[in-house]
Amino acid sequence: MKIALINENSQASKNEIVYTALKKVVEPMGHQVFNYGMYGAEDKNSLTYVQNGILTAILLNSGAVDYVITGCGTGAGAMLACNSFPGVICGYVVDPSDAYMFAQINDGNAISMPFAKGFGWGAELNLQYVFERLFEGESGQGYPRDRVIPEQRNKKILDEVKKVTYRDLVTILKELDQELLKGAISGERFKEYFFENCKDEKIAECIKEILD
What we know:
The protein is α/β, with parallel strands linked by helices. Helix content is 50%, strand content 10%. The protein has ten helices and five strands, in the order E-H-E-H-E-H-E-H-E-H-H-H-H-H-H. It has helices at residues 15-26, 49-62, 76-82, 96-106, 123-134, 148-165, 169-175, 178-184, 190-197, 201-211; strands at residues 2-5, 32-35, 67-72, 90-92, 110-114. The protein has a five-stranded parallel sheet, sandwiched between helices. The longest helix has 18 residues, at 148-165. The two termini are 30 Å apart. Residues 164-210 form the Ribose-5-phosphate isomerase C-terminal domain. This is RpiB/LacA/LacB family sugar-phosphate isomerase. Keywords: Isomerase. It comes from Clostridium yunnanense.
């Protein structure tokens, strides 16, 4: 699995802490981590939580990654931004039980965490425990286990609803404020990571046009 990490400007200073915890947990499982920044408070390419959502949608819909870890001060803004787009099911995760239940019940492809609220002593341990529970075994297996059939049915219903209520991503990207969009994809390593892993030619071509 390819996993992206995205931090916005207010919590950019915590990027290395989150990145280190994520790698420590998932790399022994055989997953790859791609750090899309921001890489620190002084990073020249500043991302807002809205741009976190845009970048998340591009990465997931293009197949450049399979999962996104993001967040903001409270985690709420980034979650709302992510869920504004097709192809993204982003959960709000504070602690390990949130992570486990989101993975098993909702079977999403992104989480948003509060990197300011409650982020104090032992924060790196909470991050590790969250990532352990999030990527523990196969997702979508239900919790409690006797609820697996209705929960899997509801997930399929949600997927079908989202197909109707959202337009295709390329159309959305072309109609977004282009400066806002360009800012979301102007990170130091975006071109390297994205074009190396993108599986959707239409999205790749759209991104090339925007960057040019």
